[in-house]
């Protein structure tokens, strides 16, 4: 199997600050590849999130468990991905496709905030605060745990 084209052999960072000239230059030669990877990944991630919301709907004013589970799972997968892309040699479009695209489209912190607003408007302040805190703590714990576990797994597999 052939490797990536020469212009894609260096790692790409899809989180480029375009106000920094050195970072802006990173996208000069392969911005369309990054854009395509992020767009395709985002479509896949958003479709997966939509499928989860359809499969396990949450009624307004009730605890939004589906959104919480999606965000926690997405954070855990981001932890795994970041270890893999920093400690293993992967295709340069892996991070833009999976991280920014798939997992960015899958996780939905805008819906998380909207869910809190809906709970507050429904008079469910205690549920809103519990959801706010539980999601935040669980998402951070998921990233940390997945990162730790992935690093340990990679270390065990090294000769």
Brief sketch in words of this structure:
This protein is mostly helical and 159 residues long. It has helices spanning 21-26, 31-55, 65-87, 94-106, 109-121, 125-157. Helix 3 (65-87) runs antiparallel to helix 4 (94-106).
Give keywords:
mainly alpha, 6 helices, globular, 159 residues
Describe the structure.
The protein has helices at residues 21-26, 31-55, 65-87, 94-106, 109-121, 125-157. It is mostly helical and 159 residues long. Helix 2 runs parallel beside helix 4 (94-106), helix 3 packs antiparallel against helix 4 and helix 5 (109-121) runs antiparallel to helix 6. The longest helix is centred in the last third of the chain and has 33 residues, at 125-157. It is globular and about 50 Å long. The two termini are 24 Å apart.
Chart the SSEs and their pairings.
Layout: H1 21-26, H2 31-55, H3 65-87, H4 94-106, H5 109-121, H6 125-157
Helix pairs in contact: 2-4, 3-4, 3-6, 5-6
